[in-house]
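Entry: Integrin beta
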Amino acid sequence: DFLKQGEPTSARCDVLESLKKRCKEIENPRGDKKVVLNKAVTNRNHGTDERKPEDITQIQPQKMELTLRSGEPQTFELKFKRAEDYPIDLYYLMDLSFSMKDDLENVKNLGTNLMREMQDITSDFRIGFGSFVEKTVMPYISTTPAKLLTPCTGDQNCTSPFSYKNVLKLTNNGNQFNTLVGQQQISGNLDSPEGGFDAIMQVAVCGEHIGWRNVTRLLVFSTDAGFHFAGDGKLGGIVLPNDGKCHLENGMYTMSHYYDYPSIAHLVQKLSDNNIQTIFAVTEEFQPVYKELKNLIPKSAVGTLSSNSSNVIKLIIDAYNSLSSEVILENSKLPEGVTINYVSHCKNGLVNTGENGRKCSNISIGDEVMFNISITAHKCPKKGQEETVKIKPLGFTEEVEIKLKFVCECECHDKGIPNSPKCNDGNGTFECGACRCNEGRIGRLCECSTEEVNSDDLDANCRRDNGTDICSTNGDCICGECVCKKRDNPSEIYSGKYCECDNFNCDRSNNMICGGNGECVCRVCKCSPSYTGSACDCSLNTSTCLAKNGQICNGRGNCECGTCKCTDPKFQGPTCEICPTCPGVCAEHKECVQCRTFNTGEKKDTCEADCSYFNLTKVNDRDKLPQPGQATALTHCKERDASDCWFYFTYGVNNTENDIHVHVVDVLECPTGPDIIPIVAGVVAGIVLIGLALLLIWKLLMIIHDRREFAKFEKEKMNAKWDTVSN
């Protein structure tokens, strides 16, 4: 009896608040999280801890189980701590084309020197060496027999060209590194870009040949040229894409002539899968190119290599410190319909969200950072099978394994009663309060057979008032009963025997159904107690109609739907308090105050009859008048009488007693006549001073004129002397 007439069985699923109003027995399964493996992060001291690399823990927890219900996120905390004295494997991959001849000399002692410098960072350090030149086909190298033996010009001592050679497997013997590197010879090729991507791919995927351990893996890529990538192999007739597999025999890459160069995306995948962090040690000229490449390869760095590689040790240490100071989380491919969200809590209280929530920067050895990770399923996978997701920090071998389980059914589905008597004598399974019909049966109670149904007869039961529309066009006629359609918006519902009712076609106000103040029931608004009207837009609350004097609409109107309708045409405004044509309070009571206080004015003869409606209090000073806050509805007035004298009073109304109180200053402020003597004296003095000023100006002009005339005379006199002398 839960379903209303016309409601489909799916209406049993609803938001919890709606179900609580109609149902006592509710199933609401929730997701869950469980930590399966939770080893604490390792506190390790430099050089004193004998633990193997696989026994060091930098990420916690290690295994989890999440039970996901659609739409409900499960959040857990992941801790990361950089372990001190963590082992490092470093593989030095060097370009041995002819332009790197002087660089090779400086790298010959790299093994022991780098071992010594790295002692401050880790006590467990291994180093390896490999070299590359180019694919051994035209047009990358010259294939003439002589050039295949010695590709260099002149008397240069060169070895035959090769694609990639693994010279030294990772070892902790620095002297062995120096010895083997010292035996290497440069080679040569024709074009400027080199085949370094082939070499990087082999270093990444040939773990057994290189000797990688499950520790920090660094690949130093040293070159003074650009690189070939996928598609460039067509120049040499190589069209097969790189297969991303190991093809080393006796340390040499044997399939360079068969497979194309790898693409950048392919390299990113393999470097990430094998937890390798790349350091590009390149010359100044190629810095812009490799910085762009760094932006595409996570957990990589670029350093500027001097022209002869003399600064390579400092470059490696600086790049390692830069890479290890940042942790970036990545996850494996998520199942369809599952999303993941990261929030990082880094040093100094810095919180990052979105894509930046995956990483923390400026991490020192021993620092702990936290990540809040939320995983949400938006739908159930096919058959509800379990899935596994892995989260790991880029460049590290450790990871968190998360097993995902999905809540796709209510528990009552497992308690269904097959062939239940409630379903038309056993024609269906009674589960979760409804019938799931057996094959060949339809209807809410499985009362109809699909073979015996006469659709015309049954459709007649679904037409309202013998009309033509089946279920008012808002539903389907199933077994002689209307089952109403579901709307895209789950809050919009059709109902009724003929699906003639709905809860969304009522009158609206402010673009809301029933003004947001009622409920739409079968296309008619049922308003809440404080509202009325067809759209529940008429408020019965009169607080918005109260005037300042406490009266509804100032006593000059009616409050309708929370708004004043003024009955006196002279008054207007939201509370009927504005009267543009009315005299002011001061002007209205001026004559009465004047006659009662000073026995003057137009009403002095009728004062007793016309002006006894207020209580009068006289004061002798303006400061003794009531001030705002001392009396209710107080107005200060300043008025002038027929003699141009000012008088001051206040007009106040006591709302509780409905009394009018007027306080008036009983002393008039009358203007005084002007003082003649100072005015006359001032005028006379002004005339005298102006005359003296004019005389002084005239005298000054005459002096200036006389001096000019005298100067002119003196000049003419001098000219006369010259004429006499020269005659």
